[in-house]
Structure formats: structure tokens, C-alpha cells
Amino acid sequence: MHFVKAKSILSSKNGMNLYRGCTHGCIYCDSRSKCYHMEHDFEDIEIKENAIELLENTLKRKREKCMLGTGSMTDPYIPLENKLGNVRKALALANQYGFGFTLITKSDQVLRDLDLLKAIHDKTKCVVQMTLTTFDEDLCKKIEPNVSTTKERVAALKKMNEAGIPTVVWLCPILPFINDTEENIRGILEYCIEANVYGIICFGMGLTLREGNREYFYNQLDRLFPHLKDKYIRTYGMQYQLNSPKNNALMKMFHQMCEDSGIIHDNQKIFEYLYRFEEKNAPVQLNLFDLI
What we know:
This protein is an alpha/beta fold. Helices cover about 40% and strands about 15% of the residues.
């Protein structure tokens, strides 16, 4: 790990990355792409040493409350978080200043902060997003080796639901010729139904590969799935978007199972929900005519 001083902490959409880089080892990680200009080894975590100070100063000055978010580039619950606690400090600030919060993770370590997540949701809105890709536990450990297994993540989703905290699942990426099967997708969806998730985000059955993450992904295929890289190259060449040959059938099943279970499966509606700040117990604005 190494430390840097940041000039700012929140993006234009009020997202933050307290860390840059990751040690979860997911073989498909888009954050390895060169377009993100990470000028250090991916596993050498960059820590913004002044992040919490910057965040508090920013929240103090904000004129309007909003939803804050973290986890788009780096999972907030990498192992270093247990030592540094920056995510927990950020949640405490959100709670202190009355902001909503949403985070996306693959780790059941999110349960450590259940007290703060619930405190935020009691006043405004807190949504926990969890990535699920692989129903089979052994396969999950191969393609997402250093993070909670799918069963552990689902257990965390259930505990969030018990605490009254809404959850959203990201069903992606789905790797062609690896986990793009009806058994896999159906298994994940049944987990989501059990956990009573609010919505599932899915952009299609497949993955994206860019310079940087393509090379890493193919190296991992050579190690874990011998000869599969050749099939990828024959099928997709240097394409950015790699759609599963089973995309249409699997997407039809996905939408039908979500519809039958009352799970939101419209990406735009889910994103609108995630970004929408909600204040509970806010003063009621009465119209003059209501008093007559």
C-alpha cells in the first residue's frame, strides 16, 4: 500500500473511491483497464490519506443533501479497510450530516457496519449493492478468489433485509463459456428472491474487455481454463463487448423470473432509485388552502 494526498473526494455524481486498486483478484476486473490511468500495481493499494478530512469539509459546505456512494472502481471492503476503517468513517460522517448512502461490494464485511447503515436508513436512505456472478461455490472461488463466496454474500443480503435495508444485486459480468448457463443464472435469481432484493441490475449476459484487463483476463484463462483463451479469440477477436451466445435466452429467463417475483429489473428505474435522496420524517409542507 502507499499513501497520496487527494485534492477532492466526491465526483460530480457524489461518488467516492477511498482506495484505488484491489486485492480481491477477480479475473475479469474492468478497473485494471489502462483507460483509468492507475499508475501503480493494481494490488498496491493507493490510500487517500486526507480522504475523510476532505469528505467532512465537503459535506459541511453542501447546500443540498444527496445520496453518497462508493465502490465503483474499488471494492470498499478490501482487507485493508479492516485496519484503516475509512469506509466506516465515511458512513459515520454521512450519518452525522444527514446524507444518504449507497455502496457496492462483493464482501460480507459490509455486515461490520450494519449499525451505521441502519442509522442512515432510519433518517434518509441507505442501499447496499452486492455483485453476484456465480452460483457454484467452487467456480466462484476460481474467478473471484480472495473475496466472500456467493453464499456468504447472499447471507449478508438476507441480514440487510432483516434490518430493513434495501438491497440491489449486480448480475454481471457473466463470462461466456464459463458461467453463462441456465443453471447458474437461475440459481443466482433464486438467491435474490430468497433475499428479497429490491432490484437486479443486468446489462446483458457477457463481459467487456479493454486494454489492461483483457491481458490479465486471458492470462487467468490460461491458468484456470486451459485452451479457453483460444476459443475467446476465435469467437470475439478484439471486441470490447463480448456477448454470450446464450444471451437472448438467458435474458428472457432473467426478466421473466424478476417479473414473476416482483423484483425491479429495469436498470434505469434502479439507478433513479439509487440516486434519489429521501428524507424520512421531513416536515410536511402545507398549502394555505389545506388550512381552510
